[in-house]
Structure formats: C-alpha cells, structure tokens
C-alpha cells in the first residue's frame, strides 16, 4: 500500500466547531502509526476521514498517486473502494453469526468463492489465535476473544491499510497487554500499514513505529516513539507522553518559581539557550541521594523533602518538595526514606529540557541554542 498523505485537511462541524485544523500528515507505507491525544483532539475524526466515513471540509487525502478525497477537485472515493479495513471501538460483531460467520462476512460481501472464503477465514482466525472458537457466538466469547475476531474479520479481506479506533479501551489491563503484543506481532508478520487511534500513551509507545500527537485539532509532533520521548517538540507533548508526566517548573517572568530561578542559574553556567518559559525534568531522570551526598558534575542538584512514597512493586514513585515546587521521581531501588525525610535530588545536565514562553522546545542543557525537535508534518 502506498504512502497515505493528508494535505491541509480541515473538518468543521455544524456551528463552526473545527474538529481538525489544517492537518498535514504523512503515514509511511508499512508503518504502524498511532494518532495520540486526549479526548476531543480530532484523532478519531482524522481516522474516519482516511476511512471515508467523514469527508473533509477542506484539503486533500491521497494514497500514493490516487486521490481519495479532494474538496477542490470534487473527488470522493467511498469507503468500500478504498481497500481499507476498520475496527471499531465496540467491535461490531454480528450476534446471530458464529465466529466463522463473522470472519467470513466481508468475504461474502465481496462474493469470494466458498472454498477460498473458508480457507481465508481459517487462516485469519489462526493468525489471531482463536481458530478453536470458530463455532461459538460472540456472546460466548471474552472481551479479548471478541477483539481478536474483529481483527480476524478485517484481516480476512486482506486490506492494504488497517484502521483501528481505540480497539483496546474496553479490555482489562492483562488483556490490553496481550492484545498490544498480538497487534505488534501481526504488524511484523504482515507488513501492513496500520493507523491506530488511542489516548493511551503506553499503547502508542509500545506498538508504534511513528506517533502523531494531536491537541485541539492540531498536529503537535510526528516522530518515532523514543525520539518523541527524548526530544518533545513542545510542552504539551512533553507532559502528554510519559507516565508520570514530565515535571514542569515555571522559569519565566512573572510566574517564575524559586526552583525555576535555581535551574536557570544552573543553566547560566551551561550557556545561553534562549528566552525560557519553563524547565522540564522527567521523573525517571530525577535521581535521589542521601542528605549531604554530593551529586556528580555536571549535574543540577538541590535539597528536597519527601512527601509521599508510592511503591508499585518494580519501582517506587517518590513525591518530593523541592524549594517551592512539588516534583515526582521514579526509582528502581528502595529510596529508604519516608514522609518528612530530607534527600538530595539531582539530574544530569542533558536531562533538563527547556521550553519557551509559548511552550515550544528550546533545547536541553547540552544542546545548541537553536530550537530543535520542531513540529513535523
């Protein structure tokens, strides 16, 4: 399947509400692209426009050289002619059909011969590992099994693009982990282009080859998962991608905190990076040491007081009071401290992120002063 391109796409609803604003997005052939963002950011609307269930108000959607939607040219290709498969959030299985019947449904609509239809349905069910449930009805399946059947139904027709609209949101934690693994495996085996909508940054980070973060109908950044995590384009991306979210410390007038001032004084030693608005430190980059212990150089450090310790089994989340600011740190070793205890926290220079007054990334302490990690399209 060729590359999917959205150029200047706008979607307005009645009353003037702009769900998607001037969107430029490229989905590479064979990629697993996640549209990530909070509820109401426009990600599902974008997916539905790619599928042909919604038409753009302005702009153009193409697949390779083929135009699927173009307001200016008056072109619209209906969903059934786009060679795309769509899995809905609620699965949409036919309750009166067995697993086999549901999986064969799309093939029947395409008038595929019976023998070939049976073989392709069986192959798809084996691929998602529910072939032993062929003769059951949806009501006799667990949520995870229903999800697999919905995927099998889509895979059976062998679409060039798989479109998934928050398909894991109705599953419990264990099944979500299992289905994330399955989707990643299916992508690796088939090489299909997948566009996956989610508000869960963990799903996006673990499965995607590319993540497109959206907010209020606008694209914020497109990048591979770890590049986005390490070099967020702006404050919104920095706070949205990561759990717990990045610690943000005001460092611009008039809202500068005492900690922000201390960080900027440290920044002064590292060179001029631009006019700051805030400083970001990821919780896992914030290291803890006993009171009075020195931090390695070069590193920012400050005395802190423990407010709360939250053990998770594999790690500890520690809530700290650093000067006048509350911060979170994650450690994989028992901090050996409780509420009221004094510690020294520190962070390597390259782990301190600087954002301008408008939220745009300026850089990190070890980067050049020129802006980096800008919004991709």
Q: Would you identify the regions where 5 or more consecutive residues have pLDDT less than 50?
A: 368-377
Structural class: alpha+beta
CATH class of the largest domain: Alpha Beta
Binned strand content: 25-35%
Helical fraction: 25-40%
Task: Note the gap between the termini.
Answer: 20 Å
Kindly report the name of the CATH homologous superfamily of the largest domain. Answer: P-loop containing nucleotide triphosphate hydrolases
Strand order of the largest sheet: 7-8-9-3-10-11
Assign the CATH architecture of the largest domain.
3-Layer(aba) Sandwich
**What oligomeric state do the depicted chains represent?**
single chain
Which H/E pattern describes the elements? EEEHEEEEHHHEHEHEEHHEHEEEEEEEE
InterPro entries: AAA+_ATPase (IPR003593), ABC_transporter-like_ATP-bd (IPR003439), ABC_transporter-like_CS (IPR017871), ABC_transpr_MalK/UgpC-like (IPR047641), Mo/tungstate-bd_C_term_dom (IPR008995), P-loop_NTPase (IPR027417), Transp-assoc_OB_typ2 (IPR013611)
Protein name: Vitamin B12 import ATP-binding protein BtuD
Domain ABC transporter: 4-241
GO molecular function: ABC-type transporter activity; ATP binding; ATP hydrolysis activity
